């Protein structure tokens, strides 16, 4: 008899995990509080409209045979275009190799492709089913009625009801941190001639220490921009509450934006800002004595700030890792869940830190000459020694090196670079001292 699974949440990680589980022979039911996103008019509130898909997500989609089907709906992004306040643009390539590109994809298209594939494999989706309670001793969930299974997967996002229910009586460590900045999305439409208004094959960044914008291209030539601002203060969401203030703010801070988004004021004031949260939880799983279990994955286990573009990619990698753990322990579900958490959690904890650091980088440092010089040196060393020297961004976005190993490796490289820089600085200083002594002798 096949094993059963109940997955809570038909978002990106829940629908992909249901595909993996169905391929592994589980009879899968997915419970989702919203309506079917394939039904016209069903609103997908919150969350970004499009996402940057990188290597970890690509590998998972390839594993379940969906990559080739999705590729035509994605837009390659070969690097960042940095917009300076004086209107100058600077292109920073993502990497030195042809395949070191990110792919922009609509969340809706990706989600629908995953749901279609899961249904093709026999997964039973129940729309409009909000889970309100979990009994980890069965395990089962309540969504109106009780749904019991051998495996319950909590893939219900950053504000996971499954996590909250699991935490009851479990001594779960829970860390939740809100950023004091929020975000709003703005559409960069086509121009009057039906052409893209800016390079549609790059990610666009408007850095700034008190506000920043990031824009991803869409397949139709439009771009979706996300403006990140402090919630409070006169130049934050709270203070920018009239058309005049918003118009003056963009003219001052992002002067090239009104030409790209002619109705930027209306769009900006159209909807409230959304918040950004980091979540860390421990443990992620529980097991029963008779070999059943409950596990969290994706944002439910580890929501991160979006500044490394890794939330979905990490969630997809979770699904791939959990699938491998199930393969390694075919007759022992608790052992598979324990292996998953043991292997995975230290790395997603590192990702949370990296995502915070990248907020600072995007905000302040992409304009700093020191940062740009360092980035150039990184890429140059990578070109000269492609195996020995790999920049952190490349390891995170273009490889599947576990996040913790990527960070440890880059720290070793940094020590080496520090040594080289110190040696060079020492040599330069020694040279200067020698010249000044020689100069004194002459004079
Ligand atoms: P979610 O996508 O949140 O899905 C959870 C699902 O569970 C939803 O469908 C929800 O309706 C359902 N649900 C919730 N509660 C219940 C309940 N009680 N009962 C039943 N169903 C329930 N990641 C990237 O990799 N690249 C990017 O470029 C990127 N950009 C981003 C930009 C922004 C502005 C933001 C906010 C995030 C970005 N992310 C990005 C992160 C990415 O959106 C998330 O990591 C990803 O959506 C996580 O997927 P998930 O399935 O775990 O959670």
TrEMBL record:
<dbReference type="GO" id="GO:0009435">
    <property type="term" value="P:NAD+ biosynthetic process"/>
</dbReference>
<dbReference type="InterPro" id="IPR027545">
    <property type="entry name" value="Kynurenine_monooxygenase"/>
</dbReference>
<dbReference type="Pfam" id="PF01494">
    <property type="entry name" value="FAD_binding_3"/>
</dbReference>
<dbReference type="InterPro" id="IPR036188">
    <property type="entry name" value="FAD/NAD-bd_sf"/>
</dbReference>
<comment type="similarity">
    <text>Belongs to the aromatic-ring hydroxylase family. KMO subfamily.</text>
</comment>
<dbReference type="GO" id="GO:0004502">
    <property type="term" value="F:kynurenine 3-monooxygenase activity"/>
</dbReference>
<protein>
    <recommendedName>
        <fullName>Kynurenine 3-monooxygenase</fullName>
        <ecNumber>1.14.13.9</ecNumber>
    </recommendedName>
</protein>
<feature type="domain" description="FAD-binding">
    <location>
        <begin position="5"/>
        <end position="330"/>
    </location>
</feature>
<comment type="pathway">
    <text>Cofactor biosynthesis; NAD(+) biosynthesis; quinolinate from L-kynurenine: step 1/3.</text>
</comment>
<keyword id="KW-0503">Monooxygenase</keyword>
<keyword id="KW-0274">FAD</keyword>
<keyword id="KW-0662">Pyridine nucleotide biosynthesis</keyword>
<dbReference type="GO" id="GO:0043420">
    <property type="term" value="P:anthranilate metabolic process"/>
</dbReference>
<keyword id="KW-0560">Oxidoreductase</keyword>
<comment type="function">
    <text>Catalyzes the hydroxylation of L-kynurenine (L-Kyn) to form 3-hydroxy-L-kynurenine (L-3OHKyn). Required for synthesis of quinolinic acid.</text>
</comment>
<keyword id="KW-0521">NADP</keyword>
<dbReference type="GO" id="GO:0006569">
    <property type="term" value="P:L-tryptophan catabolic process"/>
</dbReference>
<dbReference type="GO" id="GO:0071949">
    <property type="term" value="F:FAD binding"/>
</dbReference>
<dbReference type="InterPro" id="IPR002938">
    <property type="entry name" value="FAD-bd"/>
</dbReference>
<dbReference type="GO" id="GO:0019805">
    <property type="term" value="P:quinolinate biosynthetic process"/>
</dbReference>
<keyword id="KW-0285">Flavoprotein</keyword>
<dbReference type="GO" id="GO:0070189">
    <property type="term" value="P:kynurenine metabolic process"/>
</dbReference>
